[in-house]
Amino acid sequence: MIVGAFVAVVTKDLLVAIVASAVVDLVLAIMFYILRAPDVAITQATIGAGLTIAIFLIALRKTERYEE
User: Fold this and answer.
1) Are 47 and 24 in contact (CB under 8 A)?
2) What pTM did the predictor assign?
3) 5-42 per-position pLDDT tens digit
4) Dist CA 17 CA 41 (whole Å)
5) How far apart are CA 25 and CA 22, in angstroms?
6) Which of 4, 50, 46, 48 is nearest to 23 (CA)?
7) For the stretch 39-57, what's the b/e string if a residue is b when 16 or more beta carbons lie within 10 angstroms of its beta carbon?
8) Which pLDDT score is estimated for 58?
9) Alpha-carbon distances of 58 from 3, 34, 48, 67, rounded to whole Å
10) Does residue 67 register a pLDDT over 70?
């Protein structure tokens, strides 16, 4: 999880940053499930890894992939 967050912050390729952010969100959802909070895990997976990443990908499609 920490590695994914580091990659999301450091990389210049915005698509890689979006994928790393999705991985962090999914790992967080798994951690919530392990901690016996399945409702929070489902919400995190749906909103955090699903909707947010979809919005980022739509925004990326309208801009350039690489940061200057």
Assistant:
1) no
2) 0.83
3) 999 999 989 999 999 999 999 999 999 999 999 999 99
4) 22
5) 5
6) 4
7) eebeebbeebbeeebeebe
8) 93
9) 25, 32, 15, 16
10) no
Q: Kindly report, residue by residue over 46-66, the tens digit of the pLDDT.
A: 998 899 999 999 999 988 777
Tokens at residue 33, please?
A: 């499930």
Tokens 């210049």: give the residue.
Answer: 12
Residue 20 CB neighbour total at 10 angstroms = 20
- Output the six-digit token pair for 46: 């749906």
Tell me the C-alpha to C-alpha distance, in Å, between residue 67 and each of 1, 59, 60, 63: 23, 13, 11, 10
